[in-house]
Specification:
With 412 residues, this protein is of the alpha/beta class. The protein is 44% helix and 16% strand. It folds into 2 domains: 233 residues, 3-Layer(aba) Sandwich (Rossmann fold), CATH 3.40.50.2000; 169 residues, Glycogen Phosphorylase B (Rossmann fold, 3-Layer(aba) Sandwich), CATH 3.40.50.2000.
Length: 412
């Protein structure tokens, strides 16, 4: 239950071109404050053909994703800006711009078009990258306090910690300050009255770059209740069942997962590793690092994902840079013992509700896997403690309460 902090006199505009987690945020915040949402294209009878075409361009069905932009509780409270999405899809279809250029231009269009709707509100809560073209300044000029919502490490951290990973694999790196889109994101973060981040790790990367710590607030995103305590049987058969979910690429530590699995092969440890998610970025790695027992599964619906979580023994997530990985939070909620890096952003206390390993340290990953393989008691202890932690502290209701308090703090 949401605590009694309702303030429907407090008017909030939440603006996001892309990520669905902010729509989920708005859904729960709507129970506490008067909230309106500005977002990208909304589903309608007249644009079905357009969504179908975009699905072909992106080689995946995006109709369900678009539909999730309009939960019932937000009907009549949201504005859909179609042009930025159409521009992006057209750029991809006709190859008239790189994906990075298309993203930057569509974000600029979104920033420009939303200005007319920025009125009659106390708070402008905007996803970083969605407040371009002076939208933040317009909101401030109209008397609003600005919360910029940012959910990954500072781009300077990504420059320092990820660029070499892409370069050694002859891959294009676009996540750092060389990219004008990320420079714009830093600019928007600097304009914020409050910078809202989704983990203490992200906060630390901004503080290290000289950002005012007093302007940063942390609110971990929630986990859906149907993910809680999926894991009930901690006995293991002869094989250790290792699971990774999400985009399997350089940033996620794919190389170090593969190297660790190869070490298990050398030691003769029986295991089965399952990768659930898009592994296209890791194809070059998979050609030169070939574990014996790896199963690649493409992206699956959430209902199927829960089956993988319930039937695995350990969740492995040695990411090099995150905000706070929702996939890791789901694994913790499910009750899986999790091996992760501090850079994953996950709220793990090492040895209490998970195992923290150093980034890029294959030996530590292997040692952690061996510890969990040898001890059912440790798997149960870490998994159940993780599930309890998420259940007690990281629900969507808790998230909404935290953010509503931040709004009140800003206004008063």
């Amino acid at each position: 239950m949401l605590r009694e902090i309702k303030n429907f006199h407090m008017k909030v505009i939440l603006s996001t071109l892309g990520p669905l987690h902010l729509i989920k945020s708005a859904e729960y915040l709507s129970k506490l404050v008067d909230i309106r949402v500005i977002q990208g294209m909304l589903p309608s009878w007249w644009n079905r053909w357009m969504i179908g075409l975009a699905s072909k361009i992106q080689h995946r069905d995006i109709s369900k994703t678009i539909k999730k932009r309009t939960p019932d509780c937000l009907n009549g409270r949201n504005v859909g800006l179609t042009i930025p999405d159409v521009y992006y899809w057209a750029c991809r279809m006709f190859r008239i711009a790189t994906p990075q250029h298309a993203s930057m231009k569509s974000a600029a269009l979104f920033g420009r078009l939303q200005k007319r709707y920025l009125r009659n509100a106390d708070i402008y809560h905007v996803r970083s990258g969605s407040g371009a073209e002076g939208a933040i300044k317009v909101a401030k000029d109209r008397g609003m306090k600005v919360v910029v919502d940012h959910s990954i490490a500072h781009p300077a951290f990504m420059d320092a910690n990820l660029k070499s990973e892409f370069q050694k694999n002859n891959a294009t790196f676009t996540l750092g300050l060389d990219n004008p889109f990320w420079r714009e994101i830093v600019n928007e973060c600097e304009q914020a009255d409050i910078l809202l981040v989704n983990s203490n790790f992200v906060k630390d990367t901004f503080v290290c770059q000289g950002y005012d710590e007093n302007k940063i607030r942390v609110a971990y995103l929630g986990v859906r209740q149907d993910f809680f305590s999926l894991k009930t049987d901690y006995s293991a058969d002869q094989k250790l069942r290792i699971l990774f979910t999400g985009g399997f690429g350089f940033r996620k530590g794919a190389e170090y997962i593969l190297l660790a699995l190869c070490e298990l092969d050398k030691l003769g440890i029986p295991y089965e590793a399952t990768i659930v998610g898009n592994a296209s970025e890791a194809q070059s790695l998979l050609k030169r690092i070939t574990p014996l027992h790896i199963n690649l599964v493409n992206t699956v619906p959430q209902s199927e994902l829960k089956t993988f979580l319930a039937n695995s023994d350990v969740y492995l997530f040695p990411s090099l840079c995150e905000g706070c990985a929702s996939s890791g939070m789901e694994a913790m909620a499910a009750g899986l013992p999790v091996i992760a890096t501090a850079e994953s952003g996950l709220p793990i206390t090492n040895g209490k509700n998970g195992i923290i390993v150093d980034a890029r340290c294959v030996k530590q990953i292997v040692d952690a896997l061996l510890r969990l393989q040898e001890s059912e008691q440790l798997r149960r202890q870490l998994g159940q403690a993780a599930a309890q932690l998420i259940r007690n502290n990281y629900t969507w209701e808790k998230y909404a309460e935290n953010v509503a308090h931040i709004y009140e703090e800003l206004i008063h």
